[in-house]
Amino acid sequence: MASLVPAESTQSPMPTVLVLDDEPFVRHAARRFLKGSGYECVEAETVEIAMDVLRKTPVIAAMLDMRLSDGRTGLDVLTSLRALPEFREIPVLIVTGSILSETERAAIAKLRGFVFFKPEGFSTIVNFLDHMTGRDQSG
Questions:
Q1: DSSP H stretches of helix in the chain
Q2: Mean pLDDT of the residues in the chain
Q3: What pTM does this model have?
Q4: How confident is the model at residue 138, as a pLDDT?
Q5: Of 103, 102, 133, 98, residue with least CA distance to 117
Q6: 44 exposure class (CB count in 10 Å sphere: 0-12, 13-18, 19+)
Q7: Residue 119's pLDDT band (boundaries 50, 70, 90)?
Q8: CB contact burial 4-34 (16+ within 10 A = b; e otherwise)
Q9: What is the mean pLDDT of residues 98-126?
Q10: Quick one: how far is CA 45 from the chain centroid?
C-alpha cells in the first residue's frame, strides 16, 4: 500500500522573514500579509526574542519596528545583525510610525538598512522584499 505524502512536504519551503514589533496586532497583520505573499514569518516582540529566533531560524530578511516599548529600537537589532557574518547582507527594513532623527537615519543608512513608514502599507514592503530577495518577477 502506498503512503500518502502531504503536499507541503514536496514543495520547496517559502522564504522566511523575521518580524519584530511589540504590538501583537502589527505582528499578526504582517504575518497574514507575508503568508499571503508567499513568505513564512517568524515573530518576536522583544530584541532578546528576535536575536534568539535569528540564532535558530534561517531568514532571508528582517522587518524591525524602530520604537519598542522597552526603550530599545530596531536600530539596536540592525547593529547586532550587521556584526554577525551570516546577517551582514540580508535586507533589513526598519518600520516606524514616528519621525526619525537625522542621526538615526544616518545610522540606518550606514548599516545598509531601509526605512519604511507604517502608513506605506504591507504591499509596498512586500514589493520591496520581492525585489531585494530576487523574487520579483515583473522584469
A1: 7-10, 24-36, 47-56, 74-82, 102-110, 122-132
A2: 86
A3: 0.82
A4: 62
A5: 98
A6: buried
A7: low
A8: eeeeeeeeeebbbbbbbbbeeebbeebbebb
A9: 89
A10: 12
Q: How far is CA 48 from CA 15, 78, 105, 118, in A?
A: 22, 13, 23, 23
Domain positions in the chain are 24-132
Q: How do residues 30-62 score in pLDDT, each as one tens digit?
A: 999 999 999 999 999 999 999 999 989 999 999
Fold held by 24-132: Rossmann fold (3.40.50)
C-alpha cell at 7: 503536499
Report residue 5's pLDDT band, with 50, 70 and 90 as the boundaries: very low
Q: How far apart are CA 92 and CA 82, in angstroms?
A: 10
Closest CA to 19 of 4, 7, 6, 29: 29
Query: What is the per-residue burial (b if ≥16 Cβ within 10 Å, else e) of 104-138?
Result: beebbeebebbbbeeeeebeebbebbbebeeeeee
